[in-house]
């Protein structure tokens, strides 16, 4: 009697692709900031998301009359694919090695969950983002600039601030607020601010 053949489980392909994505994350860790590394990791995650959304194995095991079973499987696979895509989006926003580690730790946990068939653990982060998350991200990105703009409006109106000084302060604060929204490095932003200060507030000659 021959050995029984092993049939693929519905999530085997996802497991294989997540292992590949996890390996890519680990290999790229020394250059976490390199766009080429991010691109490689994203390609692996995209393949894993595509595999997660595939319900072919479930369809092959059920008949067209088992509508509820197929619908449940489709819902689960769609949620899993979206979870992987969320990590794909998050990896494009990393600003530090710590953030990179936090994001890439999740696919490793997914590999372990899939290997042990812990579906609850696999989907523990699948809940939709709270509706305030985008607003919170917007405030984090623009908060300092909004404060600078407010001071640019208020300071020239304060008693004792003459019109020339107030106009100079307003321009400097508005330009600083604009620089805070740009991806320019700290040294570049500092150089621009210094140039503005020298042009707007030249030192009095003796």
Q: What features would you describe in this structure?
A:
By secondary structure, the protein is mostly helical. The protein is 69% helix and 0% strand. The protein has nine helices and no strands. The chain has helices spanning 12-27, 35-52, 56-61, 67-91, 97-115, 119-122, 133-154, 163-180, 186-200. Helix 1 runs antiparallel to helix 2 (35-52) and helix 8 (163-180) runs antiparallel to helix 9. The longest helix has 25 residues, at 67-91. The protein starts with 11 loop residues before the first helix and ends in a 6-residue tail after the last helix. Residues 126-133 have low confidence and may be disordered.
Output the keywords.
mainly alpha, 9 helices, 69% helix, 206 residues
Task: Give a short overview.
The chain has helices spanning 12-27, 35-52, 56-61, 67-91, 97-115, 119-122, 133-154, 163-180, 186-200. It has 206 residues and is mostly helical.
